[in-house]
Amino acid sequence: MEPNHKSGEVNDLFEKIPMEGVKNIIVVASGKGGVGKSTVAANLAIAFARNGLNAALVDADIFGPSIPKMFGIEDIRPEVSAIEDKEIFFPVKKYGVEIMSIGFFINNDQSLIWRGPMAAKVLTQLLGDTQWSEIDYMIIDFPPGTSDIQLTAVQKLNIAGAIIVTTPQEISLNDARKAASMFNNPDLKVPILGVIENMSWFTPEKHPDENYYLFGKGGGLKLAKEFNTELLGQVPLVLEVGEAADKGLSVFSQKNATVITAFEKITETIIAKTE
Asked: Are 188 and 182 in contact (CB under 8 A)?
């Protein structure tokens, strides 16, 4: 897949991407990598589908797509049709979620040597040129940081809200603040639905009543208070969750009830906020 530069394309930075049929677009962001943002985004989308809602997931990490691996669909290629000289993509569906990622169109070992504006153009194509169904909730998994990808999505989409993912330690909070500040920018004004604290504590499988706070305590709540929003939930660090993701499975396939309950409650809160 290459950026489409055909004549007649819209070059206006602020022109909205037509997303008819998509009711709520929620972006999941973090200031740094390694905090489990993609895991959170993927399982939120699955949780919406488990609630009987039509869910979609867009992997906006153009340079490091991980969603196909997490769903175990790395070798699948979406159907592509040509309609009036325009490529139309059909999302891959798994666990009831419609999924689109640049990872479907490149090899696992292929690096994309693109400048920011070109990557932003590809994201615009993935969003606007995909034949989505009637979608209740679309989750967009942002890459870490604040770059052309985030700015393009915020300017070109009607976003219902943003979710900030962080781990409890201060170094993670410092980066998460930058992500949250972008959404609070007066020129962007995207409501922050809340903060999800990931890896809040570690519970050994053989000692389910013991919690070890490896990265400190209270960081997610602290960040939520700073930005006048709420702590949507705390997700513990569980070995089975990482193992499930490596096998293309969701958190709902493993046995740790605490993780499952956390995602269920977070989803219920988001639904209540966006209704």
From this structure: yes
The secondary structure of the chain, three-state, reads: CCCCCCCCCCCCCCCCCCCCCEEEEEEEECCCCCCCHHHHHHHHHHHHHHCCCCEEEEECCCCCCCHHHHCCCCCCCCEEEEECCEEEEECEEECCEEEEEHHHCCCCCCCCCCCHHHHHHHHHHHHHCECCCCEEEEEEECCCCCCHHHHHHHHHCCCCEEEEEECCCHHHHHHHHHHHHHHHCCCCCCCEEEEEEEEEEECCCCCCCCCECCCCCCHHHHHHHHCCCCEEEEEEECHHHHHHHHCCCCHHHCCCHHHHHHHHHHHHHHHHHHC
Residue type, 107: N
Closest C-alpha to 4, from 113, 191, 129, 96? 129
Q: Computed over its alpha carbons, how large is the radius of gyration of the chain?
A: 18
pLDDT in tens, the chain (275 residues): 656 554 344 345 568 898 999 999 999 999 888 899 999 999 999 999 999 999 999 999 988 899 999 999 999 999 999 887 788 999 999 999 999 999 999 877 666 666 768 888 899 999 999 999 999 999 999 998 888 899 999 999 999 999 999 999 999 999 999 999 999 998 888 999 999 999 999 988 787 788 899 999 999 999 999 999 999 999 999 888 888 888 999 999 988 888 999 999 999 999 999 98
Its pTM stands at 0.91
